[in-house]
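Problem: given the chain below (416 residues), write out its structure.
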Amino acid sequence: MTVHVVGAGLAGLGAATALAEAGLAVEVSEAAAQAGGRCRSYFDAQVGLTIDNGNHLVLSGNPAVKAYLARLGASDRLTGPAETQFPFVDLASGERWTVRPNPSVLPWWIFSRARGVPGAKLGDYLGLAGLLNAKAGQRVDEAIACEGPVWDRLMRPVLLAALNLAPEAGAAELAANVVRETLAKGGAAYAPRVPTPGLAAAFVDPALAYLDARGAGVRLQRRLTGLEAADRRVTGLTFSDGGAVTLAAADRVVLAVPPWIAAELLPGLTVPDAFESIVNGHFRLAPPPGAPLITGVLNSTVEWIFCFEDRISVTVSGANAIIGEARESLARRLWAEVAQALALPAHLPPWQIVKEKRATFAATVEQQARRPGTRTELANLALAGDWTRTGLPATIEGALRSGAAAARHVIEETRR
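Solution.
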């Protein structure tokens, strides 16, 4: 028996490594020239550094991330502050503050002026409870009042990053699940963690080494172009390199490709069909001494600043409105805001702008309803991807959960 995993993004790698851990034979096929999907690192000649295509933040309590890295022996590849903290700066007013939740579930930090959101009262925090009681099909702004200090200075920037669209228009179900897994569990569950030294070193290279050590094949630049099916089972796979695979009766397939590709391969499959962009800027300049690992920025185009040892990177989520802007224009705009936020020279350092036009599905009520589950109408084919029904927005944690779910499904089927 062989499990064919199609797609070597994090969902595919998550599924493949879990299947290999269970002792199953695995073959991975990836259309691109490198594994990792949207979570990739590469050497960029323009800045003269190895950079990530985007800045991906995970949290200390993300269970699928922890399980995946532990499996690979790569738990030390994430770095972040010992204490949960989120520094912010408002470029309009110049005000700075740091939200520092206490580790335990009892959120006494909201009563502390030194730890909480400036200007917030208890009622501002309690207003978020309506999100946890949201009805099915509600938008965020239908479940809670999207106003006040806690919303403006904490929840809106956090949910914008998580949902990758204006959070007021997001599906309350997804926003509520984010809150349940973060604020509701206490500060120890959501300390920020950044892949170090980059995405590939943390999430991709260890997975490829793990698979190689267990005899799993990984073939790159091998796009799946067709599925043959009969009697509600996949019977054959055709690839762009001219290769074809006839499946044995016991073989299984995990399809871990973008939703638009899955819809082409499986006519009739309902998938998300509206997407949101992300713009990332990378600047070759060492951050000032003592600069926080991440800083949230308000009243600016830049939303989050990431300070690495050799560079400063920024992220703009929900970036459909600026995705068409010229790259140099974007670089100058973003750097001006970084320079203001970190008190750095205004002169533009070597830079690179990375645009992801279809970075995530739009986390709206309508698109949430279009997300399929792991199982399909084909008995030996499972789906994986952050666009499947993970209960979360399109995140690294969601992608890895989908891969784990697909692997569990395959393993359960083999034991019947």
